[in-house]
Design brief:
The chain has about 400 residues and is mainly alpha-helical. The chain is built from 18 helices and 4 strands. The longest helix has about 40 residues.
Length: about 400
C-alpha cells in the first residue's frame, strides 16, 4: 500500500468524526437510527421490533376468531348430520328397539351389551351369521384391494407414457366403469355370469364347462384341494372339520371365497380401478422429470426405475389408495343387495348387508347398530395396521414416522 493511501485512510488519535465511528448495517454518520452506536461504542437499544409484537399477536387472535366464525357453519353441519347420528346409533345399539317407538323416550328395553355379546361371544344363529359375513368379507378384501391397486397402478403407468397416442381416449375408457351406476353394472354382470350367459358361452369355445356362478356356494380353495384329491369338499373330515371358531369350523374359515363371491370380486376390481388409476396418474405426473432422467443416466432399467424411483415416490398415494380400497370393500352393500342378498348359502353375506337385514327385515335395530359399530372398529384397526406396515422407515436406528 502506498504512503499516500495510508495517509488518506488513517485517522489521527482522538478523531471523533462520524465517519470514524463504527456503524452496523446503516449509513455512516446516521446517529438517529435505532442501530446507531452509543457512547461506549456498543449498539444502542433497539425498540422498533418489540413495538410491533403486541399488535401482531392481537392480529393472530383476531384471525383465529374470524377463522372459527367462517368454519362454524361446516362444524355445525358435521355435528348435526355426522356426530349426532353416530351418538344416536351408539345409544340404539344398547337397546332392544323395533323401530316402532321413540328410542329416547324410555319405551325401548335397555339391553346394555347384550347385542354385542350375541354377535361375539354367545353361541347362536346371530354369531354364526356374523362370523360368516366376516369370513366372506375378509376374502373379498384380501383379493379385491391388491388386485384393484395393482391394476390401477398398471393402467396409470400405461397412460402416463408420453409417446403413447390416444392417451386421453384410453383414460376415458378406463375410467368409464367407475362413473357408471353400480346397480346397472351389477345387473349387467347378472346376465353375463348366468349359467347360459356370455361368460360360460365363451368358456365352452375352449372346451371348459363354466359353473353356475351365482348358485355355487363351494369355496374355490376347497374345490382346488378336492381336485388334487387332498380333501372331500362335500364331506370334510379331520382336524379342520373337528374344531370351530365363532360357530364356523376351521374348514369353513379356510375354504376360500365361494364361486359367487368371485364374481363380486371381479365386479369390484373392474369398477374401481379407473378411479384409483386417476389418483396414481396425478402422483406419477408430480414426480420430477429430473429424478427419472438422473436414474436413466445411471443406466437403470424399467424395473429398477419402478422399484427404486417410482414406488418410493408413490408411497403416500399408495397408502391413500389402499386405505380407500380397504374402507370401501368392508362396507360393500349395493352389489350384494342386487346380486343375491347373501345367496347362495350366505356365501356373499357381508356385515353391511347383515346390519341392514337385521334392522329392516328382522326389526332388530339394536343388533343392526351393534353390527355397524363392530364393523367400524374393524375398519379402524385395519387402517391403523396398514398405516404401521406402510410407515416410512428412516435410515437412523429406531426412527420411524
Amino acid at each position: 500500500m502506498s504512503p499516500r493511501t495510508t495517509r488518506a485512510t488513517h485517522n489521527p488519535p482522538g478523531d471523533t468524526s462520524p465517519a470514524s465511528r463504527p456503524h452496523k448495517g446503516g449509513v455512516p454518520g446516521t446517529t438517529g437510527s435505532p442501530d446507531a452506536p452509543d457512547a461506549s461504542g456498543g449498539s444502542g437499544p433497539t425498540t422498533a421490533p418489540h413495538a410491533g409484537r403486541a399488535p401482531r399477536a392481537g392480529h393472530r387472535r383476531g384471525d383465529g376468531r374470524w377463522g372459527w366464525l367462517f368454519v362454524s357453519p361446516m362444524v355445525l353441519v358435521l355435528g348435526l348430520f355426522l356426530v349426532l347420528p353416530i351418538l344416536m346409533a351408539l345409544w340404539v345399539s344398547l337397546l332392544h328397539w323395533d323401530g316402532q317407538s321413540n328410542p329416547f323416550s324410555g319405551q325401548a328395553e335397555f339391553a346394555g351389551l347384550d347385542n354385542y355379546r350375541s354377535l361375539l361371544t354367545q353361541d347362536g344363529l346371530d354369531r354364526t351369521l356374523f362370523a360368516t359375513s366376516l369370513r366372506n368379507t375378509a376374502y373379498y378384501v384380501l383379493l379385491t384391494v391388491p388386485l384393484q391397486t395393482a391394476l390401477a397402478l398398471m393402467l396409470a403407468l400405461v397412460v402416463n407414457q408420453r409417446m403413447l397416442r390416444g392417451r386421453s381416449a384410453l383414460r376415458t375408457v378406463f375410467f368409464f366403469p367407475s362413473v357408471t351406476s353400480s346397480i346397472a353394472v351389477s345387473t349387467v354382470f347378472l346376465f353375463l355370469f348366468q349359467g347360459s350367459g356370455a361368460v360360460n358361452t365363451m368358456l365352452s369355445w375352449i372346451g371348459i364347462k363354466g359353473p353356475n356362478w351365482f348358485a355355487d356356494s363351494r369355496g374355490v380353495l376347497s374345490l382346488l384341494l378336492g381336485a388334487l384329491g387332498l380333501v372331500d369338499p362335500d364331506h370334510p373330515t379331520g382336524v379342520l372339520a373337528a374344531h370351530s371358531f365363532m360357530g364356523l369350523s376351521w374348514y369353513q374359515w379356510l375354504s376360500g371365497p365361494s364361486v359367487a363371491m368371485c364374481t363380486l370380486i371381479l365386479l369390484a376390481v373392474w369398477t374401481t380401478s379407473g378411479t384409483f388409476m386417476l389418483i396414481f396418474l396425478a402422483a406419477l405426473q408430480d414426480i420430477p422429470r429430473e429424478l427419472e432422467e438422473s436414474a436413466a443416466i445411471e443406466g437403470v432399467n424399467r424395473f429398477q426405475m419402478l422399484r427404486y424411483v417410482t414406488l418410493p415416490a408413490l408411497r403416500p398415494v399408495l397408502f391413500l389408495v389402499l386405505t380407500l380400497g380397504l374402507i370401501s370393500t368392508w362396507q360393500v352393500f349395493d352389489q350384494v343387495y342386487v346380486m343375491g342378498q347373501g345367496a347362495p348359502g350366505n356365501t356373499t353375506l357381508t356385515p353391511a348387508f347383515l346390519s341392514y337385514s337385521s334392522a329392516f327385515d328382522d326389526a332388530d335395530f339394536g343388533q343392526g347398530a351393534a353390527i355397524a359399530f363392530v364393523l367400524l372398529a374393524l375398519i379402524l384397526c385395519m387402517t391403523a395396521l396398514q398405516r404401521w406396515a406402510l410407515r416410512e422407515r428412516n435410515a437412523g436406528p429406531g426412527r420411524t414416522r
